[in-house]
């Protein structure tokens, strides 16, 4: 399973917004420039996030985008589901009647368990946590000793 490029970029855009002061409206061009996303693609990926109540938008002069919730109340699962829909690993998990074998198939139980664990872990990662992790990673990069040749 691979997340789509749209979901990857949506995560980057939300993370960028999460690092801004609370309630700050960010210009579209600034998100595009810093996250290397084209304006048309950014518009496309933000629409599901707006619909899901993750991102808000303001039109007109001084308009742009902002987080509709605090970063500690937005998870990776929220963004993935806004972009991709519910996380399913197999057809048999989408509908109870999708497979006649689900009552005895050992893979069905495994898929259900794996899906549960995956959604649980995605829900553990808030954007506040991700922003903090990024900051620490960047600090480590700048503190890393350089090797002389």
In short:
The chain is built from 6 helices and 2 strands; from the N terminus they run αααββααα.
How would you characterize the overall build of this protein?
The chain has 149 residues and is mostly helical. The chain is built from six helices and two strands. The protein has a two-stranded antiparallel ribbon. Helix 1 packs antiparallel against helix 4 and helix 1 crosses helix 6. The mean pLDDT is 90.
Keywords:
two-stranded antiparallel sheet; 2 strands
Task: Please write out the topology.
Layout (H helix, E strand, L loop, with lengths): L4 H14 L9 H8 L3 H13 L3 E4 L5 E4 L8 H9 L21 H19 L2 H17 L6
Antiparallel strand pairs: 1-2
Question: Rounded to an integer, what's the Rg over CA atoms?
Answer: 19 Å
Q: How many H/I helices? A: 6
Q: For the largest beta sheet, what order do the strands appear in spatially? A: 1-2
Q: Cα distance, first to last residue?
A: 42 Å
Low-confidence blocks of residues: none
Please state roughly what percent of the residues sit in beta strands, choosing from under 5%, 5-15%, 15-25%, 25-35%, 35-45% or over 45%: 5-15%
Question: Residue-averaged pLDDT, rounded?
Answer: 90
Number of strands: 2
Helical percent range? 40-55%
Given helix and strand content, the structural type is mainly alpha
Global shape: globular
Q: Can you summarize the main beta sheet?
A: 2 strands, antiparallel
How do the SSEs run, as a string of H and E?
HHHEEHHH
């Amino acid at each position: 399973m691979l997340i789509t490029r749209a979901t990857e970029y949506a995560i980057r855009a939300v993370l960028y917004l999460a690092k801004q002061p609370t309630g700050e409206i960010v210009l579209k061009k600034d998100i595009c420039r810093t996250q290397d996303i084209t304006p048309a693609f950014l518009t496309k990926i933000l629409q599901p996030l707006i619909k899901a109540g993750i991102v808000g938008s303001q039109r007109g002069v001084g308009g742009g985008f902002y987080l509709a919730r605090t970063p500690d109340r937005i998870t990776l699962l929220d963004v993935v589901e806004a972009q991709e829909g519910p996380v399913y690993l197999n057809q048999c998990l989408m509908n109870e009647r999708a497979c006649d074998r689900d009552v005895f198939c050992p893979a069905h139980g495994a898929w259900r368990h794996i899906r549960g664990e995956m959604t649980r872990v995605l829900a553990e990662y808030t954007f506040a946590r991700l922003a903090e992790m990024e900051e620490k990673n960047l600090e480590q990069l700048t503190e890393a000793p350089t090797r002389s040749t």
